[in-house]
Amino acid sequence: MDKPCENKIIIRDPLPNDSEKHQLRWLKENPKIMYAAAFMTLLIMCIGIIGNSLTILVILKSPRIRNIASTFIISLGAADLLFCIAVLPFNASRFLNINWVQYPELCSIVPFLQYGNIGVSLLFITMITINRYIMIVHSSLYSIVYRPIWITSMIILCLIISFGMLIPTLLSKWGKFEYDPKLGTCSIVSDEFGQSSKSALLVTGFIIPCIVIVCCYTGIFLVVRNSEKRMRRHQASTQSDPTATNMQSIRRKLSEWRITKMVLAIFLSFVLCYLPITITKTLDPGVQYPALLLIAYIMIYASACFNPIIYVIMNKQYRKSFKSVLNYGCCEKATKRVPVLRSISKRLQPHGNLTSSTVMQTLQTISPG
């Protein structure tokens, strides 16, 4: 009874086999493109590991940029770091035709981490955006909402939603993780009942967070625009003393807007990176143009290394903190040498005429080696 069932499955679904042949033929005809894709993936992985590790280190070492929003930025950086370490090496090896998809365990764990990471990254961006919204629009509620217990709960909730929704798929109860020949990699495919969690994940993990983020930024923009108008009116007026408190509040909101623009850039880069794969899968479900799918995958991978670059470009405080951490070793050595050089000058100053041998003897007496 087993063999007839197997034959039925193969005959009932001929399209994946045809797509698989098309994929294999395209791969054999374009090996240089695949090598280039593997190189790009490995390059993105290296930049992402270095950049996100530095981001976490910079925030932990720099009190001036360590705030409530930075807690979510650390979480976002950790998620991107996990993506670079646990997912990208397998995707790069796929471009090099290293066949790891034949192992069921890897074919389940890798897409589980990939889909979960995509969801949790966008949810962390949503949490940062909501943080900016409450800070600027409802500042009186900020200290009530953002207590340590609630911040921890928000982070845990993001993880539970993102990875928890994938557990039924991991257990093959709502779709399943399996090799998809149309995509040429392991992904979520329909189970024996024709069910798949992809639509639900798209709604809860992408569409709803995007709607929340757009609504928050609309509210932020309106408040900042009104604050700028009041600031101009205040500068045009001569009576500044009665409204000093209001002006301080307006300046603070405008200052917070600078950080908010950085978060907006992070969100837009995330959307731009995931838009190509959404369009490609919608317009080309049979993968008749594998090159477009390949570019779309590279864009997804690139999203893991963009955030640290945005921090450095758009935020002066982050830029200074990155420089101070990178120059820490050199600065520390230079700081230690300054007193030594001063002691050299004090020792040599009273002696008047100095020879090179005298200078060398003095240096040798104070040198550590």
Explain this structure.
InterPro entries: GPCR_Rhodpsn (IPR000276), GPCR_Rhodpsn_7TM (IPR017452). It is a multi-pass membrane protein. With 369 residues, the protein is mainly α. It has a single domain (18-239, 253-327), classed as Rhopdopsin 7-helix transmembrane proteins (Up-down Bundle), CATH 1.20.1070.10. It has 15 helices and two strands. It has helices spanning 2-12, 14-29, 31-61, 68-86, 88-95, 104-137, 142-145, 148-164, 167-170, 198-236, 244-283, 290-314, 316-326, 328-348, 356-366, and strands at 176-180, 185-189. A two-stranded antiparallel ribbon has the order 1-2. Strand 1 and strand 2 (185-189) form a beta hairpin. Helix 3 (31-61) crosses helix 13 and helix 4 (68-86) packs antiparallel against helix 6 (104-137). The longest helix has 40 residues, at 244-283.
